[in-house]
Amino acid sequence: MTTIQMTLDEELLEEVDQIVKKMRTTRSALIRDSIRQYLKTLRVRQLEKKHREGYAKRPVKRGEFDVWDSEQKWGD
After folding, report:
1. Annotated domain spans of the chain
2. DSSP H or E segment with residue 38
3. Residues 23-67: pLDDT tens digits?
4. Contact (CB, 8 A) for 14 and 27
5. Nearest-angstrom CA–CA distance, 49 and 46
6. Helices (H) and strands (E) in the chain, counts
7. CA-to-CA distance for 28 and 8, rounded, in angstroms?
8. How far apart are CA 45 and CA 74, in angstroms?
């Protein structure tokens, strides 16, 4: 691992310290997990944007997926 230095405002740091204490973890662990989650969220957003753009360029045509209707189960 690499050590970095970062700046946080006092209010945010106090909130982080409260959470760290409750979770019995460290600032570093909380920040690492938070960054991982944020990066995962960004990747999902990028994929969703890509899908939206794809469907905007090539919208679903009427009847395009009708072949799958008979494969679906709608209740008991």
Report:
1. 17-57
2. helix 27-57
3. 999 999 999 999 999 999 999 999 999 999 999 999 988 888 888
4. no
5. 5
6. 2, 0
7. 13
8. 31
